[in-house]
Amino acid sequence: MGRSGRVMLAAALLATSTFAARADTRLVVFEAQDCRPCALFRGEVLPAFWGGARKQALAITVVDVDALGTGGFALAHRLDTLPTIV
């Protein structure tokens, strides 16, 4: 499955999931500036998922790996696919 297929799969999973976040829960999205799947995720998936009650229940941090590396987040594995959502 190509990157765009993975983005669309993520979109489908996020759109159909039920979600109840704890107050300290944060979604971190790692992306790059010249990444087409990242642009699709930010433009189509995030707005569809992160609306209404979810926006109030979940903090989302977007990290540009070109500019910030991992943004200070300790990762167990290197990033080899973007966007990566943890």
Report the C-alpha radius of gyration, rounded.
13 Å
Number of helices: 4
Strand line-up of the largest beta sheet = 2-1-3
Helix/sheet category: alpha+beta
Would you report the number of β strands?
A: 3
Shape: globular
Overall average residue pLDDT: 76
Largest sheet data: 3 strands, mixed
Task: Give the helix proportion (percent range).
Answer: 40-55%
Q: Pick out the low-confidence regions.
A: none
The SSE string, one letter per element, is: HEHHEHE
The fraction of residues in strands falls at 15-25%
Determine the N-to-C terminus distance: 20 Å
Describe the protein's architecture and organization.
The protein has 86 residues and is an alpha+beta fold. Helices cover 43% and strands 16% of the residues. It has 4 helices and 3 strands, in the order αβααβαβ. It has helices spanning 3-16, 36-49, 53-57, 65-68; strands at residues 26-31, 59-64, 84-85. It has a 3-stranded mixed beta sheet. α1 runs parallel beside α2 (36-49). The model has no long low-confidence stretch (mean pLDDT 76).
